Amino acid sequence: MSEEPLGKWVSILYRYSMIYANSFLKDYDMSGGQLPFFMNIVNNPGITQEELSKLLKIDKSTTTRAVKSLCLSGYVARKSDDRDRRAYRLYPTEKAKNVERVVLEKAKMWDTVLLRGFKEGERRCVRRLLKLMVENALNYLDSEGEGR
Prior knowledge:
By secondary structure, this protein is mostly helical. It is built from 6 helices and 3 strands.
């Protein structure tokens, strides 16, 4: 019996995670695709768009669209960098800080759903292995000149 590619399961898990995120984020005028940007801006006040792109390993145009949308929804304030007028620093607004708690609670709940039936050691192992898989993917793409 041949094993199915891991990408199949990663893709299915991602799609279900987006369905879940979109279901509760619609009440906050946000989408699952904006969630990583939102959380990283909340956790790193003053981050630049370029730093955000590098941190998330996402191209600059996608970051620009997500940030623009978060600004229009009132979650992010863009301010010119004092040292580099071409760069913008991103700050969470009070609205973002109020929503952060709900988003974290929902994320923890989703983790609970995904890890249902796992023992504590297995939970730690899954997290460790997923992180290692991401590192492997990034290292491979960087060595092939395809990484971002």
